[in-house]
Design a protein that fits this description.
Belongs to the Tdpoz family. This protein is of the alpha+beta class. The chain is built from 13 helices and 18 strands. Strand 16 and strand 17 form a beta hairpin. Helix 9 runs parallel beside helix 12.
């Protein structure tokens, strides 16, 4: 097993065309992980491998790679962080951008993430927060997602780290340069256009019947978002026709399916009333698992972690077990580690469902409770 680090290459600074110029100094470093499985077996959660020293933006850095997450909450993820390796350094600000690379060495957009602007000083970072630390990411990529992807090849993959250091804003004399008027570029509105397409139903070629309601959609959009829909609509054994296909969905509420379609077209979820928030996220977690929508599943997991209480803990724990949501299961288990919370949960309707559907989970809870007492 080995981890290789390439030489850092400095990229040319980017400048503005106006008279007031904000410049950045950038550099990048390649992290080659070879023998991914062996490294994962050898390093427990919280243990990391530190890279060799490299230069980025006139500073010295190292990368900390956690193959099994930095903390127990993120044990299902790879964690990665940028560490300053200079002494006696005045405070300065920088960003780190981590990118999973495909087999052609191109950053994968869905797994490219940039930290907030943060302050580094004397081999320490000031203002480190919780969760997503500003110097890196506790949840850079789920291990199971990486292992199922084409980006892990022969037990190897690559991560690129870009170091971005803003320089002071200054004024330049550009009397000899013709004035350039900056062109305002609006933010992307692709999701709005796709949302309008869903609402207008123009060119829709599939109809879903869900709990007495009808929803029209476009096969190509659904197939692009979900590998399950892609196999259903365009698989090798699928017969292509010109008529609009009608599909009956018997295992979802109409409101949940409507929210699912909205997410597939716009990558966002609608707002749900307070009393429906937890229930809808439970329904959508099931749908996300069914249609292999990893991002939607993580959104639902995150939302449900915020709605765990004695009245919902048993139901959410059951869902977490049935749909392989390890982080959600861990949070539920931690919540129920309190004897009072466990006692109140036993008296809820969800407890009976948990006992019938997941007896091993209930046995595990009881065992932990007995050990703690």
């Amino acid at each position: 097993m080995s981890i290789h680090f390439s030489d850092c290459s400095t990229m040319p600074p980017a400048g503005s065309a106006s008279a007031i110029v904000g410049r950045t100094v950038e550099g990048h470093h390649l992290l080659h992980i070879e023998g991914y499985s062996r490294i994962k077996e050898d390093k427990a959660t919280g243990n990391f491998i530190r890279s060799c020293r490299f230069i980025g933006g006139d500073r010295h850095w190292r990368i900390d790679y956690y193959p099994n997450g930095k903390t127990a909450i993120y044990a299902e993820f790879i964690s990665i962080f940028l560490v300053l390796d200079d002494r006696d350094t005045f405070p300065f600000q920088a960003r780190a951008r981590f990118s999973l690379l495909d087999q052609d060495g191109i950053p994968v957009p869905s797994h490219t993430r940039t930290t907030s602007l943060c302050t580094f000083s004397d081999n320490r970072m000031l203002g480190l927060g919780n969760g997503h630390g500003p110097h890196g990411f506790y949840d850079f990529i789920r291990k199971d997602l990486l292992e199922k992807s084409e980006h892990l090849n022969d037990d190897c993959f690559k991560i690129r780290c870009d170091v971005i250091i803003p320089k002071e804003v200054h004024t330049e004399d550009r009397a000899a340069t013709p004035a350039l008027n900056p062109v305002p570029v609006p933010p992307s509105d692709l999701s709005r256009h796709l949302g309008n397409l869903l609402d207008a139903k123009d060119g829709a070629d599939v109809t879903f019947q869900v709990a007495g309601e009808t929803f029209c959609a476009h096969k190509c959009v659904l197939a692009a978002r979900s590998p399950v829909f892609k196999a259903q609509f365009f698989g090798a054994m699928t017969k292509q026709g010109t008529d609009t296909e009608v599909i009956r969905v018997d295992d979802m509420e109409a409101e949940a399916f409507e929210a699912l379609l909205s997410f597939l077209y716009t990558d966002t979820l609608p707002e749900f009333p307070g009393e429906r928030q937890s229930a809808m996220n439970q329904h959508l977690l099931v749908a996300a698992d069914k249609y292999n929508l990893e991002r939607l599943k993580q959104i639902c997991e995150d939302n449900l972690c915020k709605h765990i209480e004695t009245g919902t803990a048993a139901t959410i724990l059951t869902l977490a077990e049935q749909h392989n949501s390890h982080i959600l299961k861990k949070v539920c288990t931690q919540f129920l580690s309190s004897p009072s919370a466990l006692k109140e949960m036993v008296e809820t309707d969800g407890f009976e469902h948990l006992a019938k559907s997941c007896p091993s989970v209930l046995k595990e809870l009881i065992s932990k409770f007995s050990t703690s007492t």
